[in-house]
Amino acid sequence: MKTNECIQNLSYIKQIGSLPAEITALEIDSRAVTEGAAFIxxxxxxxxxxxxxxxxxKQGARLIITEKELDLPADEAAQLIVKNSSRAxxxxxxxxxxxxxERMSVFGVTGTNGKTSVSNLIHELIRKLNGRSALSGTIGFxxxxxxxxxxxxxxxxxxxxxxxxTAEAEGINNMIFEVSSHGLVEGRLWGIDFDVxxxxxxxxxxxxxxxxxxxxxxxxxxxxxxxxxxxTKKKAAVLNLDDEWFDRYAQMTPHEVISYSxxxxxxxxxxDIQYMADRTYYxxxxxxxxxxxxxxxxxxxxxxxxxxxIAALYARGYKVSDLVEALKDIAPVSGRMQLVPTSAPLxxxxxxxxxxxxIEKAIRSVMPFKKNRILFLIGTGGNRDKSKxxxxxxxxxxxxxxxxTTDDPRYESYDSITTDLEKxxxxxxxxxxxxxxxxxxxxxQQAEPDDIIIFAGKGHEDYQIIENTKYPHSDSEIxxxxxxxxx
Length: 487
Ligand SMILES: CC(=O)N[C@H]1[C@@H](OP(=O)(O)OP(=O)(O)OC[C@H]2O[C@@H](n3ccc(=O)[nH]c3=O)[C@H](O)[C@@H]2O)O[C@H](CO)[C@@H](O)[C@@H]1O[C@H](C)C(=O)N[C@@H](C)C(=O)N[C@H](CCC(=O)O)C(=O)O
Fold this sequence. Notes:
Belongs to the MurCDEF family. MurE subfamily. The protein is α/β, with parallel strands linked by helices. It has helices spanning 3-6, 53-58, 85-97, 115-128, 157-169, 181-185, 207-210, 213-225, 246-250, 300-314, 320-327, 356-366, 389-396, 414-422, 436-446, 475-486; strands at 14-16, 26-27, 38-40, 63-66, 78-81, 105-110, 134-137, 140-143, 146-148, 174-178, 196-199, 236-240, 256-261, 268-275, 280-286, 289-295, 338-339, 347-351, 374-380, 401-406, 430-432, 452-456, 463-466, 469-472. Helices cover 31% and strands 23% of the residues.
């Protein structure tokens, strides 16, 4: 793209050197720079992109967007000094990629728990109803069935814009983003023209990053403000009426608010819920009438998740009857109350629950069909929010027997993690075993016929991060090994 065209909306303080005629690519990582690229220097928390501008120039960058004047060869690369390079990146990326989000149906899903499930439900419902859809989230970047790796729940701004551009180039006109509070605060979604913003729920998590629930809640709210003020576009906020943040998020947008609830009348609400070991049934009351709904998704929170997904698609004109019909065939997302197939006379679920609220909901959701005991394993990550640990164990105490272990211990010792968890235990029937593989084995050794076993914390992840190395790990594989020895 011609440089003058690319920088037409960019405010800058000063230009050093002469601008290249063309920009071939935008990059924020010096290691990815190719000839003719513009390199935008971004500050991280541990490293600063400004320190890599020299390397970027050596690799062929011809324009550097920087917050300070850098000592670089003026004949090789021009510099544009900007006040804030993240904002500059948002403006440049929007122009460079041609604002693709404006031409697509874009859904953003935020909340503490349920983001992955709701995003996946919207994505799969669209595909089931003959649409094409792309999804970016914890599980990766799914380009209408072609799954690619991505590092974060909400990727950096450049990756995000490239995803939308790629989806558009493939002829896909729906894009779903799983939106983290980190992503919102760091502006990783600036410039994205969302059509529907969905809120699942807010509970204790990430306080190492946000420090207070107030800030955490505010961060999530940025998604609803991002629907914008242009009322010539039909947009909607889909909000959970059962959560105390409902009113505040509703106040953040002039667009239509669609409510959903499991507890009281709302635009979409559930009545007569029946939880089974492998299915959930409820009566859906909607603006288009009442429907008997059946889903393979399990547990209380998935009732809420299905309501959210149906409401989000209703906001884009889908018929409720079609959505209810399509929902029957949609399988749970990997690692979200996922039933592990086994011939042994017990039930094993893998779940991602790693907050007190999610743990409580996971355990309560299997209580209706409990015949013997509930055995529950929880781990928590090292070097992350420690304040939630006792509350997690407190909720885990709802189970008859609990094993306290680790998710990704990173650099923290096993003992430090399990000791924090142990502080919240409300009964004595538990064991602390920091090594997760040994913890899973131990739990399975205790299992008896008709027990319900839940492995929480790792969900879809097939690895453990110890120090900074990823090791293969699968709760279900270990559990099935023990079953083959014992049953
Ligand atoms: C480990 C960590 O917390 N890293 C955060 C930190 O990054 P950092 O200090 O390492 O710096 P960096 O962003 O890697 O580097 C700064 C710049 O230098 C550039 N660089 C760097 C090295 C080099 O050789 N060349 C080069 O050009 C980088 O490309 C970048 O542009 O500072 C950045 C802020 O500018 C954060 O975006 C980044 O979050 C990373 C991406 C991260 O993974 N954060 C986690 C906490 C996160 O976002 N998690 C949520 C999940 C939430 C949930 O579970 O719901 C998510 O959305 O994934």
